[in-house]
Amino acid sequence: MAAAGGELTGSQYILHHLTNARMCSTDAGLAFNSACDNSGFWVWHIDTMAWSIGLGFIFLAIFRSAAKKADTGVPGKFQCFIEMIIEFVNDTVKGTFHGDNKVIAPLAFTIFVWVLLMNLMDIIPIDWFPALAGQIGVHFFGMDSHDVYMKIVPTTDLNMTFALSLGVFFLMIYYSFKIKGFGFIKELTLQPLNHPVFIPVNLILELVTLFAKPLSLSLRLFGNLYAAELIFILIAMVGWFQLPLHFVWATFHILVIPLQAFIFMMLTIVYLSMAHEKH
Length: 279
Hints:
The protein is mainly alpha-helical. The radius of gyration is 22 Å and the shape is globular. Helix content is 67%, strand content 4%. It has helices spanning 10-17, 46-69, 77-96, 104-120, 128-141, 158-180, 182-189, 199-236, 242-276, and strands spanning 22-26, 29-32, 43-45. It has one domain (51-124, 155-276). A hairpin with a 2-residue loop joins β1 and β2. It contains nine helices and three strands. The termini are far apart.
């Protein structure tokens, strides 16, 4: 599959790595990958789903293990590390969220760790898991390895980042109506120009602002991770000399990975704090 091996041209190699493993429903039953090109709207990115759900279970397992092994005495290194993350998120929520809601801290904690784990998959050399998936497809399912796709970084899939942002958006709407009631409608219609004549203008401006929040939230995370993934793919095209370049870029990228998880968490807290403001 590697471009250096001559099996794929450079453009084909890049396209292969940027394509998700897909599943769709057709008249003949379930179809996969290239058979889904003209299947319409309902196409499932099964690699994104599998890796994101799997990493979610890893997240639960790690912190469940930490909770069971927690000691009130002198904590070990693992417990200290977990407590540092929890304290960091808790302090961030206390300093940013100005409402009274016990759901926000656990939600922010879940978002930060889960997005961080999904971003960390970008550090794994780009060919390892796709090559393994290709060999499994060849030897166990009789498939052409070029028709086996595997993207292991869920946050490089816009569907994943947009789904996360939609979850935040629905919570914003829910708490806006719960806390403000009819006042939320007044916010949308009587701001920034507080006069009934300007209600249509205010509504358009406020709705654009409202819908821009989940859109920007999803595109920011997707854009940064997708660009980094593309650079890893270009590095992998070097061939056997890719590892030194990979680790140099990975060292720089290791700073971006937690930063993007933090930004997603921080903006979530800010948006939900705005939804709790009664004025």
